[in-house]
Design brief:
This protein is α/β, with parallel strands linked by helices. It contains 16 helices and 26 strands. The strands form eight sheets. It has a seven-stranded parallel beta sheet. A six-stranded mixed beta sheet has the order 11-10-16-21-25-26, sandwiched between helices. A three-stranded mixed beta sheet has the order 18-17-24, covered by helices on one side. The C terminus is likely disordered.
Length: about 450
């Protein structure tokens, strides 16, 4: 009976794409679970469709609806969080950005958005009639529930992952199935930690304790911190994160990641999406010690705060004298997205013994001028987005140290932030602070 129902729902990618009408909203999902065959078929209809909006995020493969479609009045792709590829598309005028706070994404779909057609890549249906969401839970169930037409595109290369909850959908709730896919998974490179990354990591690891529950954000610095944690003497660490990355696999292989001391989801490493190496995808496959959950669970400060000693580690682009942190844009240029950084900053305050670290290298090389510039600035540039407001930043970290900002006055935080800058920039930054009236030579530098 189950297989007869399945057979009735099988459809070609071309016929599935023909279900899209002008004016529709189409959902592509996230990362490795974005459709491939359907995407190519939909792009072929570019001359006959108008005002079709497509939502997705963190694309890791080229999308035909972007790269083969020049006219956005036909098919227009928008992203909730830019990958490097989506950032390039945006700079070329072929992709728009949708602001959000990540933990609210399921509720945004359920309360505010229309979804006409939703298509995601999934592993083959199991013997019970379920399609697994594989490497992306996030808000998948929310937008499938809202969709007028639900389509599963089968990719035999995708691993089945364990819940958690909202990690799968039954055939009865699916309208069509596209078969025949076996598309290799895209692996993200795992960079070796730089000397600066390791110095940043040292400032964080020394503040951790056995049994800490670790969240790692997106980017090289958090991943490098996780790698150093795996090499430390810490024991019985836990995992509660939005992004499952290779650093957790390194912790597991070193025997550090046991989840044994967690108070919420004990013995389970909780996550909502996974991107990394092929070895990471193999580790996630059918692993009962890892629990895929929707983002309104993983990123809920109340939920994550149930765990004691929650340590949240995230990267940023720059910070100013007030302690405002930008982690997603450079002036008006969108780099990535708000994501869940602020969710985990807040969650660490709820956790008994929790600590939140926002990390950055103190300097960067300007690509246009070739000059070395400070990531600590007097004020964020005009148009730059504040990802974490000054009122909610706990600790800021560079290779030069870690500074607690919570509870500090404007003068105190300015002094502490300048102390994290590269020594070559500190005098100049102090003079800038004087000119802004934040510090005075008589009460500042000598006392700092």
């Amino acid at each position: 009976m189950l297989m007869k129902e399945y057979a009735r729902k099988v459809i070609s990618a071309e016929n599935a794409a023909a279900l899209v009408k002008s004016g529709d909203w189409v959902e592509y999902g996230m990362g490795l679970c974005q459709p491939i065959a359907f995407d190519a078929a939909l792009a072929m209809r570019k001359d006959e469709l108008r005002n079709v909006g497509i939502r997705g995020l963190m694309s890791v493969r080229p999308l035909a609806v972007v790269e083969r479609v020049a006219d956005r009045s036909s098919l227009a792709y928008s992203s909730w969080h830019f990958s490097s590829q989506e950032r390039r598309w945006a700079e070329e005028g072929r992709c728009d950005y949708i602001p959000m706070s990540y933990r609210y994404q399921p509720e945004i779909y359920r309360k505010a958005l229309d979804v006409d057609v939703a298509v995601i890549n999934t592993p083959p249906m199991d013997k019970h009639g379920y399609f697994n969401f594989s490497l992306t839970n996030s808000s998948t169930m929310a937008f499938l529930e809202k969709a007028r037409i639900v389509i599963m595109e089968v990719n035999e290369a995708l691993p089945r992952t364990c819940g958690g909850f909202e990690e799968c959908i039954h055939l009865r709730d699916v309208d069509y199935v596209i078969e025949g896919g076996n598309h290799p998974l895209v692996a993200l490179p795992v960079a070796e930690p730089s000397d600066v990354d390791l110095r940043i990591a040292e400032h964080i690891v020394k503040q951790m304790k056995d049994g800490s529950v670790v969240q790692l954000g997106i980017g090289g610095v958090p991943n490098s911190v996780g790698t150093l944690i795996a090499q430390s003497e810490l024991r019985d660490l836990g995992m509660h994160t939005e992004m499952l990355v290779d650093a957790y696999l390194a912790m597991h292989k070193s025997g550090k990641l046991t989840n044994a001391r967690k108070k919420a989801d004990r013995h389970k490493g909780v996550w909502t999406f996974c991107l990394g190496s092929l070895e990471l995808y193999e580790w996630v496959a059918d692993n009962p010690g890892l629990a895929s959950c929707p983002v309104n669970y993983t990123n809920s400060p109340e939920i994550m705060g149930r765990n004691d000693n929650l340590v949240t580690i995230n990267g940023c682009i720059e910070a100013d004298f007030h302690g405002q942190v930008s982690s997603e844009s450079s002036s008006i240029r969108q780099i990535s997205g708000t994501g869940g950084q602020l969710d985990f900053v807040n969650g660490s305050f709820v956790s008994d013994g929790g600590k939140s670290f926002i990390c950055m290298a103190s300097t960067y090389k300007d690509k246009e001028s070739g000059r070395i510039r400070s990531r600590i600035v007097p004020t964020l540039p005009q148009g730059e987005v504040v990802t974490a407001p000054r009122s909610q930043v706990h600790q800021l970290v560079t290779e030069w140290g870690s500074a607690v900002l919570v509870g500090c006055s404007k003068k105190e935080r300015c002094e502490r932030i300048i102390s994290l800058a590269h020594p070559d920039f500190r005098d100049g930054l102090f003079r800038e602070a004087e000119s802004l009236g934040l510090l005075r030579r008589s009460q500042g530098k000598e006392e700092a």
